[in-house]
Design goal:
Layout (H helix, E strand, L loop, with lengths): L7 E2 L2 E10 L2 E8 L4 E7 L2 H4 L2 H15 L9 E7 L2 E7 L4 E2 H5 L6 H20 L12 E3 L5 E3 L4 H5 L8 H4 L12 H10 L3 H4 L6 H17 L9 H10 L13 H10 L11 H13 L21 H11 L4 H6 L9 E6 L9 H4 L1 E3 L5 E6 L7 E6 L5 E4 L7 E4 L5 E6 L2 E6 L5 E6 L6 E3 L4 E6 L1 E6 L6 E2 L9 E9 L5 E8 L4 E8 L2 E9 L4 E4 L3 E6 L2 E8 L4 E2 L4 E5 L3 E3 L2 E2 L1 E3 L5 E4 L8 E7 L4 E8 L4 E4 L5 E7 L5 E7 L4 E4 L6 E7 L5 E7 L5 E7 L7 E2 L10 E7 L5 E7 L5 E7 L7 E4 L5 E6 L5 E6 L6 E6 L6 E3 L6 E5 L5 E5 L4 E8 L5 E2 L3 E5 L10 E3 L5 E7 L7 E6 L2 H5 L1
Antiparallel strand pairs: 1-2, 2-3, 3-4, 4-6, 5-6, 7-8, 8-9, 10-61, 11-12, 12-13, 13-14, 15-16, 16-17, 17-18, 19-20, 20-21, 21-22, 23-24, 24-25, 25-26, 27-28, 28-29, 29-30, 29-31, 32-33, 34-35, 35-61, 36-37, 36-60, 38-39, 39-40, 40-41, 42-43, 43-44, 44-45, 46-47, 47-48, 48-49, 50-51, 51-52, ...
Helix pairs in contact: 4-9, 4-12, 7-10, 9-11
Length: 892
């Protein structure tokens, strides 16, 4: 029922009617509490009387109320009184854009400032995950001072019934507000005229629907005509699906960049449509300034812009090419000019992504996109693909748990590894197939004949169609080699280069191998694998620099000296660096913080609710909580000196460095009384030794296995028994996975085997009574949690069924906690009366922690809360740097 002046809705008094439309009636009202005028929008009866839809609207209104932008009309609240439900919004004086357009087209100097403000409003909303869904001139107000206010953000979703029909009746039900200047028929036609094709079909929409509508609105502003016309809804929708706007109707003086922008906004295929409003904002800004140059640097952008904006890559590309055809260059598929082009891209939601977002990446062989592993908070890692052509980023849902990835030669598939399996992703359809079971796999390469090589201690071969892997390299124990990594085919598809990690020398070498022969040849001592690039280079990393060296692929020989082509590429581990190069010269590499991601130490309840932040620390890889629930030992990044062990005193808020040995130290484990730590010294994946050090003492660290511990293996401590007698550690021997060993501190400290199989057993954790050991093993193809008797492992029980890593016992031994493969902490009750019994795992909460091979959580002594290590919002986000046409850099 319409409201009359004087009617009260809560503390608001209706003073006049403003208009009516698909969303209901709109009134001017006076706020008696704050003495201000507001807009009251009375919801339709079908919404107000439907509890489910009203609750949904309440949730949406709460989200929309969080929007705070000068070009967005604010939501003040939701009011219910006397059977009336109304939305209280900012009252915006002035004409709406539909009224202005009734007077004809707008000049450029009038249209572009308005369009820029609309773009800024959409960009800000999209950053918050909010889509307008009903953008049109009637929902844009222009105040007398030129300020634009976009109305009804997200209300289309809030009021919708998720209509799947594409009938005219369904399309006419868009929740829109009109002014008296518009007829009901005009409202319906106006709504349909700005619908994207996918929205008109009733398909789910994303921000690209708003980008389409923005293009339609801008076109109408410049021409005075709608981009798609018709006498009724059916005709308009038909025109949207079939017709192309009359581009000749644009004013002659319309800049070419604006013409190109309009074409890319009004692109029927959403995959080819401009992917971000930032593009529109910058092109309009450039056209307004008319400087002849585009200035798209990240420094000029708002700090809280969405991290996947492609502003910088667009900018650097067009700057290199000249502004005369900047817009058309970005949107064209023409080959790049013979000059180096450099730009950076950032991962979506990058402030919440772990470092793995860029640690493992792969450029497609056609040079048009880069795939990477992205892992935002609350979710496991997935495959993401960023297109260089249109700036879009796509996440593939069927790839949870991915660790490494590489492309097929035709750029149609991505091979990726999850714990225990090598899989194949069809980039077009998103379907996934299992290729083979793997162990500790790390990256690979794919030949044109369908042969895949991947690293799994040795380099193994398997058909891309699936099969049983077979080794094509052998570990040369006489040279101290520990394992092989990062294979990459040369152009002939037979020979390949790979990295051999040498435990005795603590280094890695680049070697040349060939299918059908186990004989290999050392090419160079470098810190990473290498990729072959035309017209004859191997690209690799050394000393945190990306380098290219001329290489004769036919003869397998270097033909010149190495040249630095980029600084600050991150080394992931010994023998592996975060870069990838296509054969035609597109390089992507991780240029994030080289020394690890800042982390927060946070206490959370058993349901995951935060109860307090302990500290914010620079870098974090694994942690251990002392028995006092206060002192935390952490392996953290320490700049160019490598990782080190630090002690954080939670009671005093101090942080003290414990280790100063050369190389790297990490994976600390507390003694039961909390006065000593055992940790590794060396480089993970290389030869390491185990050291014990008194936390507050002045004496040097003591070698756990004695001064003559020179075994060429990689070792990491994992636990220290409650009675102080045993230290458990994991050791990776030559040519095989990890096994669990222990040392008796009351004996001669001769290492003894606790658990050893042909597979990998890691992160052994002793029960408080010292009679059991929990660990993870990949014997089934993916890691699972097991418990065995200690020290003989004569009996064993399976704890997890759907994968598990990082087990920890509660202090009283009645609970075992572990992390499943999708990031959920699981709790298992343990009963030792009359034997060993374990309950079914019960989920606690998503860990959302820092991705690490060590521990990112610890259990308090009373088991009522957990200390977790989470990515910090501090510091620059992870980012990928890209170089195109880099051989021109070498030539220079």
């Amino acid at each position: 029922m319409p409201l009359t002046p004087g009617t009260r809705v809560g503390s608001y008094e209706i003073t006049a009617s403003i208009g009516a439309g698909g969303m209901g009636e709109v009134y001017r009202a006076r706020d008696s509490k704050l003495k201000r005028d507001v807009a009251i929008k009375v919801l339709p009866e079908d919404v107000a009387n439907d509890r489910e839809r009203l609750a949904r609207f309440q949730r949406e209104a709460e989200v929309l109320a969080a929007l705070n932008h000068p070009n967005i009309a604010h939501i003040h609240g939701l009011e219910e009184a006397n059977g009336t439900t109304a939305l209280v919004m900012e009252l915006v004086e002035g004409d709406d854009l539909a009224e202005r357009l009734r007077r004809g087209p707008m000049a450029l100097d009038e249209a572009l400032p308005i369009a820029k403000q609309i773009a800024e409003a959409l960009e800000a909303a999209h950053e918050q995950g909010i889509i307008h869904r009903d953008l049109k001139p009637a929902n844009v107000k222009v105040r007398s001072d030129g300020t634009v206010k976009v109305l009804d953000f997200g209300l289309a979703k809030a009021l919708s019934q998720d209509l799947k029909s594409s009938s005219p009746q369904a399309l006419a039900n868009s929740p829109t507000i009109t002014s008296p200047a518009m007829t009901a028929r005009g409202m319906i036609l106006g709504t349909a005229a700005y619908m994207s094709p996918e929205q008109a079909k009733g398909k789910p929409v994303d921000k690209r629907a708003d980008i389409w509508a923005f293009g339609c609105v801008l076109y109408e502003m410049l021409t005075g005509k709608r981009a798609f016309k018709g006498d009724d809804v059916t005709e308009i929708i038909t025109s949207v699906m079939r017709d192309t706007p009359d581009w000749q109707a644009l004013p002659f003086e319309t800049p070419s960049a604006i013409r190109t922008l309009l074409r890319r906004c009004i692109e029927k295929d959403p995959r080819k449509r401009a992917p971000h409003m930032a593009i529109a904002r910058m092109e309009i800004d450039d056209a307004m300034t008319s400087t002849g140059e585009l200035v798209h640097s990240s420094a000029a952008a708002p700090q809280k812009r969405s991290a996947w904006h492609v502003a910088l890559p667009i900018a650097l590309t067009v700057i290199a090419l000249g502004a005369g055809w900047a817009g058309s260059r970005y949107f064209s598929s023409a080959p790049p000019p013979a000059t180096p082009i450099r730009f950076q891209i950032e991962g979506p939601l990058s402030a919440e992504f772990s470092q793995r977002v860029t640690a493992f990446l792969a450029v497609a062989p056609d040079g048009r996109s880069v795939a990477y592993v992205g892992q935002p908070r609350g979710r496991p890692g997935h495959v993401w693909v960023h297109s260089f052509n249109d700036g879009s980023a796509r996440e593939f849902e069927n790839t949870a748990g991915v660790t490494t990835l590489f492309w097929s030669p035709d750029s149609k598939y991505i091979a990726f590894q999850t714990p225990g399996q090598l899989k194949r992703l069809d980039v077009t359809s998103g379907t996934v197939q299992v290729i083979a079971a793997t162990g500790n796999g790390a990256n690979g390469t794919w030949a044109t004949d369908g042969t895949i090589l991947f690293a799994d201690v040795t380099i193994k071969r398997v058909p891309a169609s699936g099969g049983q892997p077979e080794s094509v390299t052998t570990i040369d124990t006489t040279k101290g080699d520990l394992r092989h990594a990062r294979p990459s085919f040369l152009p002939d598809g037979r020979r390949f280069v790979f990295t051999a990690m040498n435990a005795e020398l603590g280094r890695s070498t680049l070697q040349l191998g060939e299918l059908g022969s186990t004989t290999t040849r050392v090419l160079d001592e470098i810190a990473s694998g290498a990729d072959y690039v035309n017209p004859g280079y191997l690209v690799f990393a050394r000393d945190a620099k990306l380098m290219a060296r001329p290489f004769d692929a036919t003869g397998g020989q270097w033909t010149g000296d190495a040249i630095v082509i980029a600084d600050a590429v991150r080394t992931v581990s010994l023998g592996t660096a975060a870069f990838s190069a296509s054969i035609d010269g597109v390089i992507a590499y991780d240029s994030s913080n080289l020394f690890g991601q800042d982390v927060n130490l946070e206490w959370v309840a058993r349901d995951g609710r935060p109860t307090g932040t302990v500290a914010q620390l620079p870098g974090g890889h694994t942690m251990a909580l002392a028995v006092d629930d206060t002192s935390v030992a952490l392996e953290t990044s320490s700049g160019s000196t490598g990782n080190a062990v630090w002690i954080h005193d939670g009671a005093r808020g101090t942080r003290t460095r414990l280790t100063f040995e050369q190389g790297a130290q990490g994976h600390p484990v507390w003694s039961p009384e909390g006065r000593r730590l055992v940790y590794f010294d060396g480089q993970p994946g290389s030869m390491t030794r185990l050291l014990i050090k008194v936390v507050n003492g002045t004496r040097d660290a003591e070698p756990l296995l004695g001064p003559n511990d020179q075994t060429p293996t990689s070792k990491q401590p994992t636990d220290w028994s409650r009675d102080g007698r045993y230290i458990v550690y994991e050791e990776q021997s030559r040519g095989r996975g990890f096994e669990l060993k222990y040392v008796d501190l009351n004996g001669d400290r001769t290492p003894k085997v606790a658990v050893s199989t042909p597979f990998s057993e890691r992160l052994g954790q002793l029960s408080p009574d010292g009679r059991l050991i929990a660990f993870e093993s990949n014997e089934t193809g993916e890691p699972q949690i097991y418990v065995a008797t200690f020290p003989d492992a004569s009996m064993r029980w399976t704890i997890s069924s759907r994968g598990g890593v990082k087990p920890r016992w509660s202090y009283n031994g009645r609970e075992l906690v572990f992390l499943d493969l999708v990031g959920m902490l699981q709790s298992v009750g343990i009963n030792l009366s009359g034997g060993f019994r374990a309950s079914v795992p019960v989920p606690l909460f998503p860990l959302n922690g820092v991705d690490t091979d060590g521990y990112n959580y610890a259990i308090s002594r009373d088991a009522t809360r957990l200390l977790v290590m989470r990515p910090s919002q501090k510091g620059p986000p992870p980012r990928i740097s890209v170089i195109m046409n880099w051989p021109a850099t070498v030539a220079r």
